[in-house]
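Appendix B, Record 12. Input sequence as logged:
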Amino acid sequence: MEIEIVTLSRQGGRNYNEDVHGHWHDERYVACLVADGAGGHGGGDVAAATTRSSVLGGFSAAPGLDEFTLRTLVEQANRDVVARQAEGGKLAGMRSTVVFAAIDLESQALAWVHSGDSRAYLFRGGAIVARTTDHSLVQQMVAGGMLDEEGARLHPQRNMLLSALGSVEEAPDITVSDRMRLMPGDVLLLCSDGVWEPLGDECLVDTLHASRTPSQWTEQLDAQIKAHAKPGYDNYTALTLWVIPDDVDDATRLMPAAEEETMPAAIEANEKPAD
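Logged structural output:
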């Protein structure tokens, strides 16, 4: 299975960039992460960088796609951010979201874990077949039938999080996905809210359809975010991973027209990796 990873990170209309991204791999596993820091006084970049170091370092030491492994990684990252908060000053109130995806190349499986409103998307046949659910006030309102997704994206309280790393008194909400089958032609996107909030899911799909390569897609995302920009607009970061079909040399064929939206097949916990 051949993959290609391309990243994009900009400070937008802010004075500095508190988003980070990262990835790691060995012969069997690939791991990708986006974290979006916040602190109000410059500590957000430290929270995000601490989260990246903790999660990628922990995964590289003991990789796996099971729920316990992925949840433990984020729980440890929360403890590491809290430990840095104790240094005081600008670090005292820092927080970070995180979204982390892990791929087992042997079993062609994918799983992700997140806390906050940084998102993971899985596209198949050019359509969104799986997506994380934000830990936010407006997402809670969507779940309660008070808002639809578009209303939530534009809501004045859309940035109010219910969970982020750096939580001392209460453990952060952490959601781990089921294991999903990863197929040739699939596209994975990890991104901060600075990407999905101004664009919406429909624009993500449209720009993906118009792109022949991952680099072209990130360029289109960059241009669209700038076109929708408002004064002081947020940092924005995207990491995209494309699974290149073995028998396709031209990436223009990665995005066939979708006749139906098929959810990625879940892999049973006791299913053995393919030889």
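The longest strand covers residues 29-38.
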